[in-house]
Amino acid sequence: MARFIAVRWGLGLGYAKTVVGAAFHAAEKYHLEPTTLLAIAARESSFRHRQDADPNNTYGIMQVIGRYHRDKFSGGVVHPTTVTENIEIGAKVVREYLTLEGGNEPRAIMRYNGSENKEDYQRSVTRLKKLFNRVAANPAYDIKEDA
User: Fold this and answer.
1) Beta partners for 65?
2) pTM given for the model
3) Rounded distance, CA 147 to CA 43, Å?
4) Alpha carbon 54 to its chain's center
5) CB 50 within 8 A of CB 60
6) InterPro entries of this UniProt entry (predicted)?
């Protein structure tokens, strides 16, 4: 998976491994599918973790808005995060929204984007999740199949 993400999004392999490892860890911790977290990160930031942005606004690989999710930061204090921390905070948000939406993932994904009516965003995340599921099912997945 990391190699696929590195090639497809033009990232360093080490960084891609960190992203994938963090997504799998957070997914296990919050009972989510790792491909959901990877799809959101791909859609939100193309896996780019800008650290020069204000963490109270959209920030990091998961584009979490700190001022709305203070409770998900360590000690309730919004601060710049590492990639791993940002994915974990994003996973907490996804878990909360899945609970609020009664397990309805499409609605939780729309809520993550800030609106329960952004079906284009939800469809994009779902397409990416399906792509990541194909890659996970076939480690020899040829990136040219999706070119």
Assistant:
1) 58
2) 0.89
3) 17
4) 19
5) yes
6) Lysozyme-like_dom_sf, Transglycosylase_SLT_dom_1
